Amino acid sequence: MLETEQQAFRSRSNASAEQIADLEAFRLRLVEANTVMNLVGPDSLPDFWNRHVWDSAQLLDLAPEAKTWADLGAGAGFPGLILSIMLKGRDGAHVWLIDSLAKRCRFLREVVDALSLPATVIVGRAEAQSVTCDIVTARAVAPMEKLLGYAQPYFQRGAQGLFLKGERAESELIEARKSWHFEAELAPSQSDVRGRIVTIRSLRRARSTR
Fold first, then answer.
1. Are 141 and 115 in contact (CB under 8 A)?
2. Which of this chain's residues are annotated to bind S-adenosyl-L-methionine (predicted)?
3. Residues 110 and 29 sit within 8 Å (Cβ to Cβ)
């Protein structure tokens, strides 16, 4: 089953043999690490290639010219580690993997070092970093209203946002507009019919009416 899903991913993404090898090496490390700490739900591992890899890699189709990415609340490395594997070897490509939990960052750093990925792991709060990038992204971190607060400093330095969201994406945007002004576009996820990818531009905080 995993081999079939791997082949399906390779067909959809045009991944090279080297990228597939790196992704498989990452998968094996994730499976091992997940036995001692909760990085992802164990039930999601059999669907690794679609639920995690393709879900993450599809972002590249929406920002094909972007070279630098910041993944807020990077967790187990989705989407950031996947993006760094797919961007490996591209001139100027770099991904910042930012997470506030040190043990998750140790895992991320081990994978980055083992696979020689163009990525930097940062332990700390997302909104406290001074990273400049083309795209700021996140998956399963916080509702949109709060997530935009974490991402605001990156927008101020010129980034656009690409956020992986579920079936509540539209309602989260409605709620977020109470606190923020922004331009938003929604695209269907290629990995889950319930999912949405939210593009955010021109973010600024709304004036309080109090």
1. no
2. 73, 78, 126-127, 139
3. yes
Specify binding-site residues. 73, 78, 126-127, 139
User: Over the Cα atoms of the chain, what is R_g?
Assistant: 17
Annotation: binding site for S-adenosyl-L-methionine: 73, 78, 126-127, 139
In the chain, what are the domains?
Answer: 1-205 (3.40.50.150)
Q: Mean pLDDT per segment of 10 residues, for the chain of length 210 residues?
A: 85 95 97 93 91 97 97 97 98 98 97 98 97 97 97 98 97 97 97 96 80
Q: State the pLDDT at residue 2.
A: 73
DSSP class of residue 40 equals: S
pTM, rounded to two decimals: 0.95
User: 207 with 180: CB under 8 angstroms?
Assistant: no
In single-letter form, the type of residue at position 69 comes to W
**Runs of H (alpha helix) within 34-184:** 55-57, 59-62, 80-87, 102-115, 144-156, 169-176
pLDDT at 1: 62
Q: Which two tokens stand for residue 82?
A: 């996947």
